[in-house]
């Protein structure tokens, strides 16, 4: 396949034709398979011919020429399209390549990915090359185009300039704009963001919303302004409202919103019978959430809730491909489509027995066939984090009266600091900790207090954050400094320190936020870290998402950002960052 994304050359197209004419043998034939016939909404028995990475024939016939063809008998087996993740955040400790390896074993072979990390970590030219070169792997990667940082950055305007957005939108790998976390600005008259939305429409691409708690009036306005889909329905009623307004509605099952089962039940109770405009997403869950499956888990839940199996599989494949205008190459078992295929023992068991991705065996008869791949991140400006500067105890000065209080994993509110923040250590009989955001280049810092994170965390540091800057949390300034020094040694990562010793750590040497480890190994590291944090009083669902969202201004009510402590509702800096 030529490097132009999923466009076959004339020579390749003539070879595919030659297979049908009996002049060339197919690479593989799946014999006597019962496959999901999406066009007819039924299960059909057929032989499926594959040449290289493409399905070239589906029907009753066998090829005339079979020299070198791999014949695979599938009588009694079921074949469905490879699953598609339409809303991937592929930088949640894992990276796009390791996520692809892990998820493909479970049947998900196409990913539509957030590119915020690329905007923040590497020049646009390198980001565009990366998005193209990822598709040399056996999986399919499409991308979004972010319009803003969902935080308050010192260089926001230069990063998310019209020029950069238009360069992204011109890429064939980018198929949507968004997710539109700054929709309140659009509602309130921000014509800059509206212009980006119009540029996305002009490029013939979708606009993805992010509209939690939005009223019918707000949803209607955003539909008029250009939003096509939203994944933030938290009840069956909210999902149905989005459908009523013409949205494609993405149902979420994630580490911070694991409520798909309840939403489906409520939708059915309200009267949902057709799911053609409903799709599934795991919304960038953290590694441990994927321990039992990825998209296949969502299909299982749908089947258990009595959703028609064809609807359940379509919500994970065809509906997504059609929404993005890619049904001619993805989401169907039909001639001309990429050979992303899952082979099932039973329709009721969506975790596949065997997986083909671009015509290559990823998994066969329950066992991995393909060895884990690697990706040269350094070539794209996303190498180890070089913190070539030092923190000292002089940086640990706290004098603010306004602090941040956690409501849950991701929502925070302001609170009035009443204790003395000048002490070197805080007592463990309360849940207030020292809290800092430090520039990854060492130029500035923001110091405040954090209430509700934990009672017994002594020193905790992370280069994993929404902006790539360094988060420090803890009761002890010395242990916070020791935790920082540990992530500096690791060239990026997360470290929990107590009495000067490292209790738990995760190395994240890819741009300070991603691990090269297989997801299976990363799951164990995350589980250990979470367990140690829980022992020390962390009581919410997901500490990794807490780290990610401390700086994210699309959530209420107060955030720690590069500009300083930020009041989201009033849109003002409560106190600014301090130059070091």
Automatic annotation (TrEMBL):
- Domain Amidohydrolase-related, first and last residues per copy: 78-355
Extract the InterPro entries matched here: Adenine_deam_C (IPR026912), Amidohydro-rel (IPR006680), Metal-dep_hydrolase_composite (IPR011059), Metal_Hydrolase (IPR032466)
Which UniProt keywords are present, listed alphabetically? Hydrolase
Q: Where is the Adenine deaminase C-terminal domain?
A: 410-571
Q: What is its EC number?
A: 3.5.4.2
Q: What class of enzyme is it?
A: hydrolase
Protein name as catalogued: adenine deaminase
Q: Provide the species name.
A: Fictibacillus fluitans
